[in-house]
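Researcher: I've been going back and forth with a colleague about how DUF2007 domain-containing protein might be arranged in three dimensions. Neither of us has a model we trust, so I'd like an independent prediction. The organism is Paraburkholderia acidisoli, in case that matters for your notes. Sequence below.
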Amino acid sequence: MLKLVRAPNLLIAQHWMNILATAGVPCELHNRYLSGAMGEIPAEQCAPEIWLTDERDEKLARRLIDEATQGPPAGAPSWRCAQCGETLEAQFTVCWNCGRDRDVRDLLDE
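Model: Here is an independent structure prediction for DUF2007 domain-containing protein. You can compare it with whatever you and your colleague have in mind.
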């Protein structure tokens, strides 16, 4: 297992977990309930953490979380829908023409 990131709060951590789960990246949320111990133990040790089950998913997981927090980088290339062939801009995650989701594994090729 690999600690991927420490989230600022439980809401953000769960959002990132949902993004990773949708992409098929297995992970676990640690320190979910430690906020109640804040003050008894240092605050930075109470923050929720996302841990990857498979270390090979690190590059994709970091990319997904970066895009979730900052959006696609300026000048990111367009992508082509595998189902209908429509070309879409980088910020779109679903094809407007046929409704197919973008395959997140394509992000690794960019």
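Researcher: What would you highlight for our discussion?
Model: I'd start with this: The chain has two helices and five strands. After that, consider the following. The longest strand covers residues 2-6.
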